[in-house]
Design goal:
Elements: E1 31-39, H1 42-46, E2 48-50, E3 56-58, H2 59-76, E4 82-88, E5 102-105, H3 118-125, H4 127-134, H5 149-160, E6 169-177, H6 188-207, E7 210-216, H7 230-233, H8 239-248, H9 253-262, E8 268-277, E9 280-287, E10 325-326, E11 333-334
Parallel strand pairs: 1-4, 1-6, 6-7
Antiparallel strand pairs: 2-3, 4-5, 8-9, 10-11
Helix pairs in contact: 2-3, 2-9, 5-6
């Protein structure tokens, strides 16, 4: 049976493919706007870790690799999200506010915040080779200077995320850095003033519905210390701080998986309304965590020239096709797809003449 004719197949459709999805558009946050803030200070280029191939890799390379993977995941999942990539602690500046130390990367014909495209990913992957020449790295806050690139970067990101309502769009800032104390070289009132203004800028962004997430880049011999500054910027305390510190020591490759998992579209199956008592109920959404892979369209090619064959009408010949699924691990034929479920409550219908079934 064709998968499109399967009545159970509808639950695996994306929300933008569901004809009834328009009913939930105004109430659900379906889109996501993301600004990637990448620290481009010299420390990001000098600190190295071992990659999966056991080759030395700088923290700057790791950050760019994570972003590239997430952009590709968005295109694969037909996402309508919009992204922007900004570097701070740069020699050159390029942003709408014309602030020093911040360079917003985008295609010449595109906007600063736009949907990812194949060309954007291609140009972004080639950026690493030309970064030193065209953009350049610069130290962060220096003694005697009133410039604050981190403050400017959050301001630029907040301005990029100004479009779209916070009720219908999830807005996030992902910050990549290996500097746990951006104002460590300053002392006295100047350090206190810069710390206060930067934290206030971050709070202003959060008050507008923008989430700031930190992706700390630690070295094997130097652990990222949140307590120096970023614990106040991202607002961690108590158990959240303890768990965050534990996860911060994991390998940086885990960040790639975390970014990729966040890009998958939620697929709503049904809405449930559990009535507890009269006038009190709980409404829940159920989502399909597993979906079948639909084969792409078939293009018939000539066996000699490898050119596409033209369509022709066949009246006396009926062509039938069969499809078989083979397990990649065992090589055995897969007869039927696995069905998964989670029991809510076991009911003894034989011994209970009046079972109490939740109202759904």
């Amino acid at each position: 049976m064709d998968m499109e004719d399967d009545p159970d197949y509808d639950i695996f459709r994306d929300e933008d493919e569901d004809p009834d999805a328009q009913l939930h558009t105004e109430n659900d946050s379906n889109k996501e706007y993301v600004v990637y803030l990448v620290d481009a200070s010299p420390k990001m280029f000098t600190t190295t870790c071992l990659s999966e191939n056991q080759d030395p890799e700088t923290h700057f390379q790791i950050a760019l690799s994570c972003i590239s993977l997430s952009l590709k995941a968005q295109i694969i999942n037909k996402s309508y999200d919009q992204v922007s990539i900004c570097f701070f602690n740069t020699r050159e500046k390029k942003n709408l506010q014309d602030l020093n130390g911040v360079y917003a990367f985008h295609l010449p014909e595109g906007d600063y915040l736009d949907r990812p495209t194949a060309r954007l990913i291609k140009e972004f992957d080639n950026l690493q080779d030309s970064f030193s020449k065209n953009i350049g790295s610069h130290h962060g806050v220096l003694p005697g200077s009133r410039e604050n690139p981190l403050y400017n970067a959050i301001w630029v990101a907040q301005a990029l995320l100004r479009k779209g309502s916070a009720k219908t769009v999830n807005k996030r800032i992902l910050l990549f850095t290996n500097e746990d104390d951006p104002f460590g070289c300053l002392k006295g009132a100047i350090k206190s003033d810069m710390t206060r203004t930067t934290l206030q800028r971050a709070k202003d962004a959060q008050d507008l519905g923008i989430t700031i997430e930190l992706l700390p880049l630690s070295s094997p011999d130097e652990m990222f210390d949140l307590s120096k500054f970023y614990v106040d910027l991202i607002g961690l305390e108590g158990d959240d701080l303890v768990s965050f510190m534990a996860l911060a020591g994991n390998r940086l490759e885990d960040m790639k998986d975390q970014l990729r998992k966040r890009m998958f579209t939620k697929r709503r199956v049904k809405k449930f309304k559990f009535t507890i008592v009269d006038g009190l109920s709980i409404e829940l959404n159920s989502y399909a965590l597993i979906r079948p892979t639909v084969p792409g369209s078939i293009t018939w090619l000539d066996s000699i020239t490898n050119r596409p064959l033209k369509k022709m009408i066949v009246t006396s010949l009926v062509v039938q096709s069969e499809r078989t699924f083979i397990c990649a691990d065992t090589g055995a034929l897969v007869e039927e797809s696995t069905r998964r479920f989670h029991p809510y409550k076991k009911l003894d219908l034989e011994n209970d003449s009046n079972p109490k079934v939740p109202s759904v």
